[in-house]
Amino acid sequence: MEKRILVIDDEKEVCKLLEDFLTKEGFHVTTAFSAREGLEKLRQEKIEVILLDIRMPEMNGIEAIKRIREINKTVGIIMTTAVMDQKVAEEAMKLGASEYIVKPFDLNYLKNSLLVKIAML
Question: Domain with 11 in it: what CATH number?
Fold first, then answer.
């Protein structure tokens, strides 16, 4: 089974880093630089897990989760952020995120989190 990941982050450098690393690890990676772009890609492609940034212009990660769930109720969601905020983390989990990972990433931890999430789907 091809492991398809969608990275939604307004920081192009973060998208590139994750795309390069995860591709080398055997994942098929699609990137989006805004929540709106990510939602459109989710409508067009089969995705197993989304790595979703919390803080983005126009639409934040919390609003994006709500819209993601309208499109796909079962896709895995792992939140990513540069700032740990317990209230936001709790809200993200209530809405269906399985994990909340703070930047800078431990890439091996992230890879293992993705593999666990995919195995659970």
Answer: 3.40.50.2300
**How many CB atoms sit inside 10 A of residue 10's CB?**
16
Q: How far apart are CA 46 and CA 12, in angstroms?
A: 22
Partners of 80 in the β-ladder: 53, 101
38 in Cβ contact with 59 (< 8 Å):
no
Name the residue type at position 65.
I
- Residue 92: pLDDT over 70: yes
Q: CA 53 to CA 96: how far, in whole Å?
A: 14
Whole-prediction pTM: 0.94
3-state secondary structure of 13: helix
